[in-house]
Design brief:
14 helices, single chain, binds pyridoxal-5'-phosphate, about 375 residues, about 40% helix, 12 strands, alpha/beta, 7-stranded mixed beta sheet, 3-stranded antiparallel beta sheet
C-alpha cells in the first residue's frame, strides 16, 4: 500500500525544506520569556522598523479592507522612482513570490538552472519544486564564480540565479563584472539578479541596474521592501525586467497576490528615501561596530555588503543554544551545509552590544582594557 508521501511528486517529497530563523514568539513560548526582552538577529530585518510614514498610510485605509486591492498606485510610484514605464514591473508577496513565479513560468523537467554554492537557498528550492535540475557551481571565497557559472550553462539551461549581495555569505560581485557576464551569457538564458540588499550598498559600489533591463532582454532584477524598507511582515517585493518577461510573469500570478496594506505600506516607504539613507548609514555603523569587536576577539567572519555578518565559530550549536537561553536569536545555516558559520543581522546598537557581550561570555573572551 502506498503512503501519502508516495502519492506526492517525487521531486517534492525529496525537497529539503527552507528553515527560517526562529521567531520572537517561538523563543518566548519555548523559554517562557518576555517577547519584548528578546533580541532577534536572525532574519536580516531592519531593526528600526519601517518609515513612520508607513503606519499612517496603512491605518488610514483599514476601513476599506472589505475591498480587493488595487496595485495601480504602487506600480506608478515604482515607475516614477526608477524612471521606467509601469510595464517593467511586477509586484509580489515578497520577492520570494517573484522567484517562485520565475521558476513556474520558465522551468520544468528537463531544464536546468545554474546557481552558486552558498547562494540564497530559495533558488535551488524553487528549481527543484518545478521538477527542473539544479547545477550548482563551487563558490570562490564563499562568493559567486562568474566564469564557472558561465561555463556551467548548457543547452538545457534556462536560468542563472545570482544574489548580489548574496545571503547568507554577504559577498558582492562588482557591477562591471556582472555587466561583462551579462554580455557573455546567451540571450536565451535568463539571468535573475536578486538585489534584496541593494539599498545597503554604499554609493561607490552601487550601479543603477534598472537601466540594464532594456539593454539585456534576458535580465530580471528582483528587489524587496523586506530589508532596508522594514516591511518584512507585510510581504512585498518586485521585479524589474523588460515588458515581455513581465507579461509572462503577470499571467502566472494570483489575481490579488499582494494585500492592500502591503501596497499602501510599500508606496509610503518608497516615498521616504531619507529614511532609506538613514537606515543604510545606521547599518554601516552597526557593521563597523560588530566587525570591530569580532576583530578584537580574533573571530573570523566573511566580508559583508549586506545588513548581516556571517561569523566562523568552532561550535555553532553550542553558541546558538546559549544565545537562545539568553534571549538572543542568531541564525545557524543548515540549509547551506555551513556548519561552522552563523549569520548575525545588524540590530540596534544596544542589541549589537548585547550580542557581543553574550559572545564574549560564551566563548570566555574577556573585554580588552581600554
Ligand atoms: C537574497 C534574498 N533574496 C530574496 C529574499 C526574500 O525576501 P522577501 O521575500 O522577504 O522579499 C531574501 C530574504 O531573506 C534574500 O536574502
Amino acid at each position: 500500500m502506498k503512503t501519502t508521501t508516495d502519492l506526492a511528486l517525487a521531486h517534492i517529497a525529496q525537497l529539503q525544506p527552507y528553515i527560517p530563523g526562529m521567531s520572537i514568539e517561538e523563543l518566548a513560548r519555548t523559554y517562557n520569556l518576555d517577547p519584548d526582552s528578546i533580541i532577534k538577529l536572525a532574519s536580516n530585518e531592519n531593526p528600526n522598523g519601517p518609515s513612520p510614514m508607513v503606519s499612517a498610510a496603512i491605518t488610514h485605509d483599514l476601513a476599506h479592507s472589505n475591498r480587493y486591492p488595487d496595485g495601480y498606485d504602487l506600480y506608478a510610484s515604482l515607475a516614477r522612482h526608477y524612471g521606467l514605464e509601469t510595464d517593467h514591473f511586477i509586484v509580489g508577496n515578497g520577492s520570494n513570490e517573484i522567484l517562485d513565479l520565475i521558476a513556474r513560468v520558465f522551468l520544468s523537467a528537463g531544464d536546468n538552472a545554474v546557481s552558486s554554492q552558498y547562494a540564497f537557498f530559495v533558488y535551488s528550492l524553487e528549481t527543484q519544486l518545478v521538477g527542473a535540475t539544479n547545477k550548482i557551481v563551487p563558490a570562490i571565497n564563499y562568493g559567486h564564480d562568474l566564469s564557472k557559472l558561465k561555463e556551467a550553462i548548457d543547452e538545457h539551461t534556462k536560468i542563472v540565479w545570482i544574489a548580489n549581495p548574496n545571503n547568507p555569505t554577504g559577498t558582492f560581485i562588482p557591477y562591471p563584472e556582472i555587466h561583462s557576464f551579462l554580455e557573455a551569457v546567451p540571450s536565451d538564458v535568463l539571468v535573475v539578479l536578486d538585489e534584496a540588499y541593494y539599498e545597503y550598498l554604499t554609493p561607490d559600489n552601487k550601479v543603477e541596474t534598472q537601466g540594464w533591463v532594456d539593454e539585456f532582454c534576458n535580465l530580471i532584477l528582483t528587489r524587496t521592501f523586506s530589508k532596508v524598507y522594514g516591511l518584512a511582515g507585510l510581504r512585498i517585493g518586485y521585479a524589474i525586467a523588460n515588458p515581455e518577461i513581465i507579461q509572462l510573469l503577470q499571467r502566472a500570478r494570483q489575481p490579488f497576490n499582494v494585500s492592500t496594506a502591503g501596497l499602501l505600506a510599500a508606496q509610503a516607504a518608497l516615498s521616504d528615501q531619507d529614511y532609506v539613507k538613514t537606515a543604510s548609514h545606521a547599518n554601516q555603523a552597526g557593521l563597523a561596530y560588530v566587525t570591530g569587536q569580532l576583530d578584537s576577539m580574533n573571530i573570523p567572519y566573511l566580508p559583508t555588503f549586506g545588513n548581516f555578518v556571517t561569523i566562523e565559530l568552532i561550535d555553532v550549536p553550542d553558541v546558538c543554544q546559549k544565545m537562545l537561553q539568553q534571549g538572543i536569536i542568531i541564525r545557524p545555516l543548515p540549509n547551506y551545509a555551513m556548519t561552522h558559520h552563523v549569520r548575525v543581522t545588524v540590530g540596534l546598537q544596544s542589541e549589537n552590544e548585547a550580542f557581543i557581550a553574550a559572545l564574549r561570555e560564551i566563548l570566555a573572551i574577556t573585554q580588552p582594557k581600554i
